[in-house]
Amino acid sequence: MDTVDRLMKLLPEEAAAALATRREEVTEIRLRVNRPTQIVFDGTDTLAGAPIEARRLREITSALMDHSFYARETELARGFFTMADGSRVGVCGRFAGDGTRLTDVGSVCVRIARAVPGCVDGLMGLIASKDGLHSLLIVSPPGLGKTTLLRDAARQLSEGGLRVGIADERHELAACHMGVPTLDVGPRTDVADGCPRPRAIRQLIRTMAPDVIVADEIGGEADAEALADAARCGVAVVASAHGRSLGEAAQRRWIREIVTTRVLETLVLLGERPGHIVEIRSLNERSAEWRRA
User: Are 280 and 266 within 8 A, CB to CB?
Assistant: First the structure.
């Protein structure tokens, strides 16, 4: 049973019915205490069902975690947990003490993970060409399909005969169960699941000798250093990062460093709607301006 099926059994009747009518188009389901269910589609949303009481929202959250609420406190302290099918559930509310223990659930955002074969077709020529493999970074705000694009890139590269290593710290790219991917990431793909991203990247290089490393939502100096190590080993990188513009991304020192040191060769900006490419910049076009940023 996937996450949408599970939610349809847990939500108020009207909200479940609204979800059922367009289940293949749903990208997010947002639940908030004392408010109706928000169901998000591609560019639109609807509010449905009776307001959800605090006790019921906690019950739904616990059910999505297979009633292991306290066993997953470490994940909850980071503000999310991941379902078996790769769907990520963001959680916020009241945190106790130093902010590491969630005591009251106020809001839940379920991002539905799906494989969309072919969605990355327009970018594959920038990653693999007659000249060889090229490193690429996808930049976008949350919810516009970065993870879906990376998953399809891993699948296509793997099916094309390349060894692919996925650093899947948040269990979203491959949705592994007991270390085995449940989503199609290709026949020649190895996954380091649930491991901190910098360590996962280095372990994959050391133990699996990938041609390409795929990493989602890189976010700091440690990630940048690990990606630079990969480049020095001759491994291409296909990764993503949050940002609303390439200019905004350029303000982050760690992104600027991996751009100007030629770890990355192309930047892609997503916007407007899931999967929509707004801008593509090659290293030669942007190298000087990023050094000045």
Answer: yes
Please give the Cα distance from 173 to 19 (Å, whole number). 24
Domain boundary among 111, 137, 161: 111
Residues 6+ apart with CB under 8 A from 215: 166, 167, 197, 200, 201, 223, 227, 237, 238, 239, 240
| Interval 64-73: pLDDT, tens | 988 876 667 7
Contact 11, 19 (CB under 8 A): yes
| Amino acid sitting at position 265 | E
Write down the pTM of the prediction: 0.82
Do 286 and 224 share a structural domain? yes
In a domain, 116, yes or no: no
CA-closest candidate to residue 36, choices 47, 46, 28:
47
Q: Could you read off the pLDDT of 2-59 as tens digits, one per residue?
A: 899 999 999 999 999 999 998 888 989 999 999 999 999 877 899 999 999 999 999 9
Residues of the chain with pLDDT under 70: 1, 69-71, 283-293
Beta strands in the chain (DSSP E): 28-32, 37-40, 45-48, 80-82, 88-96, 101-111, 128-129, 132-133, 136-140, 164-168, 176-177, 180-181, 189-193, 212-215, 236-242, 266-270, 277-282
- Quick check: 116 and 152 in contact, CB under 8 A? yes
Residue 97 carries which side chain, given as an amino acid letter?
A: G
